[in-house]
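QA checklist item 7 of 12: single-chain prediction sanity check.
[x] sequence parsed
[x] length recorded as 436
[x] structure emitted
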Amino acid sequence: MPAPGQSFAVLSFGCRINRYESQALREAWLAAGLTEAGPERAEVLLVNTCAVTGKAVADLRQALRQAARANPAASIVLTGCAATVAGAELAGLPGVVRVVPQAEKAGLLAPLDPIAPGGRPAAPAFAPFAVSGGDRSRPVLKIEDGCDQFCAYCVVPLARGPAVSREPGDVLAEAQRLLGAGFRELVLSGINLRAYGRGLAGRWNLWRLLAFLEERLAPEWAGRARLRLSSLDPAQLGEEALQTMAASALVCPHLHLSLQSLSPGVLSRMNRSHYGPQGIEDFLAGLARAWPLFGLGADLLTGFPGETEAEFAEGLANARRLPLTYAHVFPYSRRPGTAAAAMAGQVPEAVKTARAATLRRLVRERRGSFLRRLAAGPELTVVIENRAEPRGVCQFYAPCELAGGMERLPARSLVRVRPVGLRGATITAEALEVVA
C-alpha cells in the first residue's frame, strides 16, 4: 500500500465497471494526498484487472511484465476480477507486492489505512465507489454490481459475487453531480442490470429507477443532456421497459443486448433459457413503434460447447431478422471454474473463429446500411469526445466526426449537427449549434 506523499498510477483493464471503479480509486487516492504520475515514474502501480476471457488474463500478464521492466522500482498492487480468480498465479509476477480480491477492492478507497493483506472484511452490500469526474466525455454511472445468473461460460459471478444494487437516491445524487460538472451523457451501467433492485427496500427494478431519474432530472435536463443504457439482458424487455423508454425524454434511442446466442438449444446449455429469439423480435417490433429509428448492439458468442453447424446456422438466421447496427462477437473462451469448461463437445478453435468471422460479416453489412441511413438524415446530436479533432457519438451510438461549421467545440458538449457524408464507418457532419 502507498505511504503519504507517494506517487501512483492507475492502470485499468476490462469492462466499463472496472473503469468506473478505477476512476473512483484515483479520486480517493488524490483526496488522500497522494500524487499522480505516469506509469513509468509512479512509485505505486494500482492495476485493476479483468478475467472475462483467457486472452484478457494473458494480455494482463504481458502488460504487467512490461510495466515491471519499464519501472522496476514500482510496487504493483493488483485488484479486480483476475486478482480474485487467478491471484495466486499473478502474485508471483515481477514487482507485485499485494493482490487485493474484488470483494476487498473497496478497502483501497482508504489507501493509507494500514490494514494487513487479507484483513479487510468483505465489501458492504454496495461498495461505496463514487465519482465526480474523469477524463471520459461520457462517464459511467454504476448502479449495480455482481451477478447470480451463473451462465455456464461466465467467470464473473465467481469474481464479483452476488448481485447488489445502489440506492436510487445515491444514483440520482451522482447523476446530478456529473451533470453539474459539465457532462452531457451518462451511461447507466452494472454487471447485470436485470438484477437491479436486489437488496433494496421496495419493488425497484431498472425501469422504475429510470422513471425515478426521469422525473427528477428531465425538468432541467431534457434536451440538454441524455442517459444511455449499458448492456441489457433480453429478459428485461417487457411491457414496462417499452412504456418507460417510450415515455423518456432523456434515454438515447439505443439498446445493447447481452444476446450471447440466438439458438434456443445453445441458450439452454448456457443457462440462459430465460429468453429466446422470438421474444426479442416481438419486443423490438413494439419498440420500433415508439422509436422509428434506433441503434441496436449485441454481445454474441460463437463455438459454445456442443454448438453444431445446424445451431450456428439457426442463430445466424435469427440474427438476420434483428435490426442489428453493430455487435461484439467473440469466439467462446474456456474459463476455469465455470460449468462450460467441463462440458463435452468443445468446439475447435478454428471452427469458433470461422463462425465468428461469418457473424461479423453479417453485422458489418447491417452496420453499413444503418450508417448510410443516418448519413442521409437531416440532423443528429453528438457528444464531443475529442476537442482537438471534434468527434464523438450520436444518440444512436454511431461515431461522428465534425468536418466544420463551428470552431472551439468543448469536449463533453452536446452539439446539433447536420450529416454531410460517410467516411468508412464514421459519419462526417457539420456542427450547427451547441445545445449544452
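[x] summary fact logged: Residues 263 and 310 are 9 Å apart (CA to CA).
[ ] second reviewer sign-off
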